[in-house]
Prior knowledge:
Chain A is built from 5 helices and 5 strands; from the N terminus they run βαβαβααβαβ. Chain A is an alpha/beta fold. The chains are: A alpha/beta, B alpha/beta. The interface of A and B includes residues 6, 41, 84, 121 and 125 of A.
Amino acid sequence: MIYTLLVLSGPAGGHGARTAAGFASAALARGHQVNRVFFLDEGTTCGNASAVFPQDETDPLETWAKLAEEHGVELVLCISSALKRGVLDETEANRYEKGPATVHPTFVVSGLGQLIDATASADRLVTFGG
Amino acid sequence: MQNPKRRQLVILRRSPYGSSLARAAVDLSLAMGAFEQDCDLLFLGDGVLQLLDGQSAEAIGSKNLGKMLASLPLYDIESVLVDAAALRSFGLTTADLVLQARLVEPAAMNTLLAGYDHLFSC
């Protein structure tokens, strides 16, 4: 089965994002596909490379990076949500003269079309958080 | 875009200025229209307030969600559905809304939701 995941909450607010990553891992382990994880609204803070988590806790960024590296899962942040939250890639940081990029290199910043496109070819859309 | 076209429903559940998700859901709805998706909208619970006419969002420095939603017909969004029970609980009728909307009674909700391939609930 092909899944698209929609993540509406960030690592600092509840467990929605963590559950989404867990769901993605479990689905992939059972031979399903995750064609894209789309992060909307507060979910875009998942891609903030500047976030620091306590050393005795799992770093949520590593969990996402592992999913992307090992399984080629696309991680896409909604651009308008990300901009408002200071999660900028190099292009946007330059465009708005906001200093260095803050998005983790595992994530791509793009538009809502990426969610619509992924969902159009998915059997299931599963939403987390919000 | 892939085919066959999926029937999709965006469920707007937040009050218009109480959560940033309200705006995100409106943006998603407009994007659905712009990308010519087969998409309906359901305003559920507090979300019915997004459709209220005469919002003064300028007073809080926000974009007027009611005005954004009023432009939906231009985006070819086929049908706008409203939670009838929520509307009643706020003492509102469809005449108070910026758009023509079809009321959905609680008893019909499950059947309605079951008719879609994908639900975007925000």
